[in-house]
Amino acid sequence: MDVGASGTMPAGSHPSGASFIRRYWVLAVMTLVYALNIADRFVLSTLIEPIKAEFALSDSAVGFLTGVALALFYTTAGLPLGILADRVNRKKMIGWALAIWSIFTACCGLAQNFWQLLIARIGVGVGEAGGTPPSHSIIADYFLPSERAIAMSIYALGVSLGSAIGGIGGGLLTEQFGWRTCLIIFAFASTPALLMLLTIREPRRGACDPGVTAHAQKPGFREALAFIRSQRALMHVIAGGTVATFAGGGLVWWTPAFLGRSHGFSVGEAGLQVGLMSGAAGAAAMVAAMFLMFRMARMDPKWQCYFLAGLTLLITIPGVAAHVVSDRATAIALLWLFVPFINVMIGPSLALIQNLTRPEVRGFTVAVLLFTANIANLAIAPQLIGFVSDILAARIADPAQSLRYALAGFGLTGIWAAWHFYAAVGSLRSDLAKAGSA
């Protein structure tokens, strides 16, 4: 099957013009790239304690380094890069982004002081900001609206895979070779994915959207933002995903440190535990959700919203309790009921966002989600939790336990996230029609 002169896929039995095997090969490559994105991001949270010890940092400084530094530039660069993804060859953009964040991951391992590490971390954020919007946009153009909940659930497995690599691999490599060598090894792990990207073909934008009959003119920043704001269901899904990311992923940033301080785990032991929870168990939970999406694909889309609301509310309970109990075994058991499920919402929520957005603004819409979610996950959560932990440490008898109380309090925000997913149902049907996905 050849690419036409316009650079788009030729017509075929499937609207994308691609065979079943090719569509899922594209999805597999996008998932691998996403896993590397998450691994390079997650590994630094595994390395918090040795980095903190070497550079003599406070929890607030660690929160700024691991979260705020990445988030500020990730989100600042993300919006213009999202617009760019709606205008350029997306495959090439993903390749450049992957190369850039990998180079700066290696630079993190070579840093000799806090400021050098900070600058390298910023570079990682800018690179990663250019990878996700074009990836989501490409997947949406290879799969029908009814198929996207399945496709995005498979894509979301990259979170579990990346978390496992960052947690287990990061912990074991650090104990064996040190944290610097660990980061350099992670940087070179992107080479196979760069080669695999060469096999991907650029699809026609909007190829799989039944309500899109012509290739619309590219809107500017204000027009794209105005469309997003006009979609009430889309706004609620973005808000729900943002708060859920804070209540789940934001807390897990600190979980290795929490296990070390409150329960005596070493860096390797904590990384292994969190890696198994996020990776092995998280992948199993997401695979189960993927099969559930096969059934929900034939149901009214509102059931995806109900699923997201119910799941987010349910896992809030063990998420809070895990940081309150003092018994080590009980805390680990509760974390196993929390951590594996925090990323299950990614696939269904991303599918809803793609279906609630017109093809010509998909890259920008994904960038908006990344902006809000990563401000919550990478900037607010690490910094605010670290700040509150520092305040509590000066006011309680055992300062080492300050982190547990900060994490327990912020875990309650899961209730807020669940409400947004539920509220999206009200205008879901009309907003799907406006996006051309009905």
Short recap of the structure:
By secondary structure, the protein is mostly helical.
For the structure shown, list the relevant keywords.
74% helix; 438 residues; disordered N terminus; 0% strand; mainly alpha; Growth Hormone, Chain: A; 21 helices
Strand segment count: 0
Class by alpha and beta content: mainly alpha
Helix content: over 70%
CATH architecture: Up-down Bundle
**Which ranges are low-confidence, i.e. pLDDT below 50, for 5 or more consecutive residues?**
1-12
Protein name: MFS family arabinose efflux permease
Keywords: Membrane, Transmembrane, Transmembrane helix, Transport
InterPro entries: MFS, MFS_dom, MFS_spinster-like, MFS_trans_sf
Membrane topology: Multi-pass membrane protein
What can you see in these coordinates?
The protein has a single domain (20-209, 220-435), classed as Growth Hormone, Chain: A (Up-down Bundle), CATH 1.20.1250.20. It has helices at 20-46, 48-55, 59-85, 90-110, 114-129, 132-140, 145-155, 157-177, 179-188, 191-197, 221-230, 232-252, 255-263, 267-296, 302-321, 328-336, 346-355, 362-393, 402-410, 414-423, 428-435. It is mainly α and 438 residues long. The protein is globular.
